[in-house]
Amino acid sequence: MASHFTPEALFGTTVTDRDGDKIGKVEDVYLDNASGQPEWVSVKTGLFGSNVSLIPLAQASLSGETVTVPFEKNHVKDAPHHDPGRELSETDEADLYRYYGIADPTSTGHTTGTGTTTGTTTGTTGTSGVVEGEGTYRGQGHDTSGPNTDEAMTRSKEELHVGTETREAGRARLRKYITSETVSRTVPVSHEEVVVTREPITEANRDAALSGGDLTEEEHELVLTEERAVAAKETVPVERVKLGTETVQGTETVQAEVREEHIDLDTDAGVRTGDSTTTGKHTDRR
């Protein structure tokens, strides 16, 4: 019998096997009915903690928050399972001691019960709850990992909220500069050419012809004119250019990973469940 342990020191501790592998956390502490000392502890094993395995404290050692037992983890998992909250009968203890290869002290006629707030046993009637390390009674439905809360789990999920933010996307500038090009235009022009006209002497022009001397030397001069194409440049305004903005609507796709909790019901073989979503078997996969 492990009389050097107290229930308060055992609750919530981690049980490891002889190789240091974690078996589980102490859920219940079972006291000897005669001495009131801890004799067994229970840990949840199996998939999702679906089984309750009892481990004897006779050869266990406690160091801080760790209880070390001289068995292998798989050996503990394969031990005869026990219903939580029910007292151990002499037959139950005999089977367990036989399985663990420990001398059976039940031959002296004592039984083992579940601990209560006063540290005494519950007698032959058993109890539906156990005592936590701080003396708080834990109900029929309770947390098996982390702090004890209430009778239900809260399922949560992450939701994605999107919006917009304004940031600088770039800058635009107006820059004026000068370029040159050659422009050709066709302009009509005119010029005068010399034309010599000879006409015979007639009665109509005889007087003009005889107005000078008989024989003289003379020069007659004519001024000729012509048009020439010329170019002149003038600066004229063409248009006004200014900067502004306009808003163009579009869409963008935002992607982010969000997480969601799911709660599945897991029961031992043979446990009956109803059809209600609050009390029966229900898998929530929203």
Textual characterization of the structure:
- The protein is mainly β and 286 residues long.
- The protein has four helices and nine strands, in the order αββββββααβββα.
- Strands 1, 2, 3, 4, 5, 6 and 7 form a seven-stranded mixed β-sheet that branches. A two-stranded antiparallel ribbon has the order 8-9.
- It is rod-shaped, with a radius of gyration of 57 Å.
- The two termini are 51 Å apart.
- The relative contact order is 0.11.
Percent strand equals 5-15%
Low-confidence region ranges: 113-140, 278-286
Alpha-carbon distance between the termini? 51 Å
Instruction: Give the strand tally.
Output: 9
The value of Rg in angstroms is 57 Å
Mean pLDDT across all residues, rounded? 78
The SSE order reads HEEEEEEHHEEEH
Q: Compute the number of helices.
A: 4
What general form does the structure show? rod-shaped
The SS-based structural class is: mainly beta
Measured as a percent range, the helix fraction is under 10%
Q: How would you sum up the major sheet?
A: 7 strands, mixed
